Every structure is written in structure tokens, then in C-alpha cells.
Amino acid sequence: MTLAHALVYVIDDEMSMRKAVGRLLESEGYSVEMFPGAREFLARPPHEGPSCVVVDLNLPELNGLDLQRALAESGRVEQLIFITGGASVPTLCTGNEVWRDRLSVETFP
Amino acid sequence: LLPTGRVGGDIVITRAAAIWGVPLKIATAVMIVDIPIEIGLNPIHASEGLFVLASIIDITERRQAELEAARQRNELAHLSRVTLLGELSGSLAHELNQPLGAIVTNAGAALRFLVRDTMSHENVREILEDIVAEGRRAGEIIRGIKGMARKKDPIRQLVAFNDVITGVIRLTRSDALVHDCTIASELDPMLPKVEADVVQLQQVFLNLILNAFEASQEVLRTQRQIIVRTERDDERRTVLASVRDFGPGLPAEAPERVFDQFYSTKKEGVGIGLYIAQSIASAHGGTLHAQNAKGGGAQFFFRLPAFSKVEV
Question: In what order do the strands lie in the sheet with A31-35?
Fold first, then answer.
């Protein structure tokens, strides 16, 4: 698979983490675009090719879940990968049975 | 010159004071003992004329009681501080995770770049610089916690109020995220310094901010804002800091009840946090008050004397 048209968005308010995750993806050959917040990301027109969003769950203002909702409401189909430093994964699934089945949890970094 | 230092000290002083009327040093052949005394001179108008009643009191015991009270206060303050840090510990772990995660991720990226041989010198330098910066940051967080957890006697020094506040806000950043709160600070850049123990000041602000987080949980996410302000009050020669939330507010009939010992609305609270915070304020010659803010929420005012060189 060629990664030429694929784009990965990294959204994290913490600059150090954003840069680090961005670099990690670049080291694997991905094109990366970084945003300090969900609002900044939503302001960007959607990418034509395949794309994926790596987003910090605990963002101030619009958080990761808000972003997911916003994307769903505007009919966008980007895959989402949440990253979090807190142990908020269980709370993440509460009240969202469908989603729970589709959620896979990985340890990072 | 007396045979022993303390025996009958007050009698000796009483006699001697009748002659000299000044603070005394009682000396023996081998040692000098300072005895704190209090001298009172009161005029007595009698038909025979004006008399003076001179009293000299050995206040050694009172002094010791005061010192003991101060020691107990510091002990309790330490206990309360450790409890506060305990409340923070979950988010402090997260706060440490952040730089550590960035370090590991950066190093991982660098290793991959190396394997693919696609890294410029400039790249390497940038990554290593970031790793160093993050390592330092992790160290600072640990130093901050250690400084607060350590049990040592308070030291008065000149402190910038704003720096203390900024430090505490940094320490509580993750906790703010966990509680979905944002902190806005409006700090007066021209604030005079105060003479205080840094750790105890941190404790007061940590207490106020954590309480504000807690209170904010009662209201909608959009309302969870905390405003920290500082300003100078030249007229009263004080500096004033306030911490305001938009939570449900304090008991309307008696907002200051929150300072009572063992008063707590938290599930796991002991109710000494604010009590201690207030005692810290008064030990520094200042005040800590609470009121319901206009427009909702609680507001705490922490006032301390401003340091000025010319003060007598």
C-alpha cells in the first residue's frame, strides 16, 4: 500500500506530545498534519484521500469525544485513534454499547 | 551574679526591676540565661498623688506555649498538605506520564529514523533537545511535589505571589483536565512581594483551587471555569489574591462556615483544609475570607501584607 495520499492528523494541545507523535508517524513514512485543538482541525477542509485522526481524549474545550460527535454529525468517516494519559478508557465507553464492541485498547507509547 | 540560672528568677527580676526597670540578663559564673519578661507600667491616681504600678512578668511559659502552638500548627499544616497531595496524586501521575511519554515516543521515532537512515543531523538535534527538555520537566514536577511533601519548619522569605500561583496552576493542570475545568488567571504584573513561607502559600492556593474543581463538578461542563486574580491594594498596603468558581456557591446564611474545623461537604474530606489555610493566612499577618460571588459561585480572598523596605 502506498502512503502517498494517506494523511494522519495529530491533535494534541500539548506541543511536546504532538511533536513526538507526529515524528513517530513520520518515521514510519506517513504524512502528518498537526493541530493544537479540535476546533483548528475542524476548520481545515477534509482530506481527499484516506485519512486518520489521532486525537488526545482530554483536550480543553472540544475534547476527543466531542470531536467524534462533530465528525459523525457532519457525516465524516475518518477513523479515530484516541490517546490518553489518564485511565479514562472505561468511562469512555459508558453509555455507548455499540461503540464498546468496536473499541480496541492499546498501550502507548 | 547568682548561684543558679533559673531558680527564683522571677523574684530576682522583680527586685532588680524595682531598681533598673529594664529587661535583665541573669548571669551565673558559667552561663547566661535569657528570660523573656514583660514589663508593665500603669499610672495610679490616688489622693496622695500619682503612683506607678510596675509589674514584671516572667513569660517563659507563655512563650513556650506559643512555640508549641506554632509547632502543632505546622504539623497540622503538613498533614493537610500531604492530604492535598494525595488528592492530586492521580493527576500527578498523569502529569509525569506526559513528559515520559514524549521522551519514549521521541526516542522511538529517532530509532526508526535511524533504521531507515532518513534522519538529518538537524533532525537528531531537534529530537534530542526535546528529550532533554521533557526530562527536565519531569524532574521539575518531582521536585515540586517533594518540596510540598517535605516536613520542615517554615522559612519566611520574599516571595512573588504570582509565581506561587503560576506554579500551583501548573501542578493542578492535569487535575483541571480530569475535572473538565479551565483556569483563567489575571495576575497583576506590578504586584509587590510578600514575606512568607513559599510552601505554605502553595498550600493555600492548592487548597482553594482543588476546592474550586470540586465545586465545579456540581455544574455543567460549560460553567466549569475558575478565575484566579491578583491585585495590589496600595491603600491598605496589601496584596490580594482571589479564587473564584462558578459552582453552587457557599451556604448562603453563613458562607464563612467553610473555615470551621471538620466542616466538609466532600465524601472523603476531613474538613481541615480551609481551616488550616486560614490559620496560615493569619500566621502571615493576613486574612482569608469567603463569599458568594455576584453571578454565582464561591469566591475566596487571600490578603497578605505587601512587603516594603521602609516599613518600621
Answer: A31-35, A7-11, A51-56, A79-83
Tell me, yes or no, if B107 comes closer than 8 A to chain A by beta carbon: no
- Max Cα separation, chain A? 38
Cα separation, A73 vs A63, whole angstroms: 15
Closest CB to B105: pick one of A20, A28, A58.
Answer: A20
Assign B218 to helix, strand or coil.
coil
Map residue B116 onto helix, strand or coil: helix
ipTM: 0.80
pTM above 0.80, yes or no: no
Report chain A residues whose CB lies below 8 A from the CB of B118. Answer: 27
Pick among A23, A84, A92 to test the B interface (most B CBs inside 10 A): A23
Tell me how far apart the alpha carbons of residues B278 and B273 are, in angstroms, rounded to a whole number: 9
Residues from chain A contacting residue B113 (CB–CB below 8 Å): 23, 27
Residue of chain A with shortest Cα separation from B102: A17
CB A81 within 8 A of CB A52: yes
Cα separation, B35 vs A77, whole angstroms? 83
d(CA B297, CA A105): 39
Residue B81's Cβ-count burial label (10 Å; 0-12, 13-18, 19+) is buried
CA B175 to chain centroid: 20
Q: What is the pLDDT along chain B (312 residues), one digit of tens a residue?
A: 344 444 455 565 556 556 655 555 554 445 567 788 888 888 888 888 888 888 888 888 888 888 888 888 888 888 888 888 888 877 788 788 889 999 999 999 999 998 888 778 888 899 999 999 999 989 988 888 888 888 888 889 999 999 999 989 988 887 888 788 889 999 999 999 999 999 999 999 999 999 899 899 888 888 899 999 999 998 889 999 999 999 988 888 877 777 877 777 665 555 678 888 898 999 899 999 999 998 889 999 999 999 886 544
Residue of A nearest to B98 (CA): A85
Question: What is the tens place of the pLDDT at every residue in A24-35?
Answer: 999 988 999 999
B94 in A contact zone (CB under 8 Å): yes
What's the angle, vertex CA A68, arms to CA A64 and CA A70, rounded to 5? 115
Q: What is the DSSP string of B60-98?
A: HHHHHHHHHHHHHHHHHHHHHHHHHHHHHHHHHHHHHHH
Q: How many CB atoms lie within 10 A of CB A107?
A: 4
